[in-house]
Fold this protein.
Amino acid sequence: MEFYDLIAQRESIRDYDPDRKVAPDVLHRILEAGRLAPSAVNFQPWQFWVISSAEMLDKVRRCYSRSWFHDAPHILAVVGDLSQAWVRKYDGYNSLETDLAIAMCHLILAAENEGVATCWIAAFQPDLLKDALGLKENERVYAITPLGYPKKGLTKKNAKQRKPLAEIVRFI
Ligand SMILES: Cc1cc2nc3c(=O)[nH]c(=O)nc-3n(C[C@H](O)[C@H](O)[C@H](O)COP(=O)(O)O)c2cc1C
């Protein structure tokens, strides 16, 4: 799909068909787009965890109690390691959250290109997610997304509520 059309068309989907899984080759292409994301000093401090087993889905779903989230056949968690990310020497800024956000953007846009629906989720309960995934001390998750297909009959809103450019751009 043309890149600007893709950007305009993508929207968060909150209605998933529980019976329609994403095929392995489609998943592979989406994950490959995440793998190619840029990161500070190219440290790539991430792992992409695709949760599809009934046991793990059950655990992870408890971290975010929306019913639509429980319908998605897969959940993708971008997991990062603070000790693997670049740290700015002047003030100790750690780039992990930025690196993971960029990777998630790649993943979400690639999913859109494959016709796979996503919804960036940050409002999960972090402690529950940490336990569910068995994260180590240095590991962090800032965002997860369902991966799947919208329920039949769901029509996209295609009406982006965004501030106009005139309000947000400065040419200086
Ligand atoms: C950092 C971040 C956190 C978000 N957290 C949630 C969330 O917890 N639950 C949710 O339903 N949507 C969440 N969203 C999705 C936004 O609500 C959505 O992207 C925004 O309203 C714009 O709509 P669109 O994605 O359909 O263009 C999040 C998005 C971002 C970028």
Notes: Residues 96-113 form the longest helix (18 residues). The pocket of flavin mononucleotide is lined by residues 11-12, 14, 119-123, 160 (CB under 6 Å). The two ends are 34 Å apart (CA to CA).
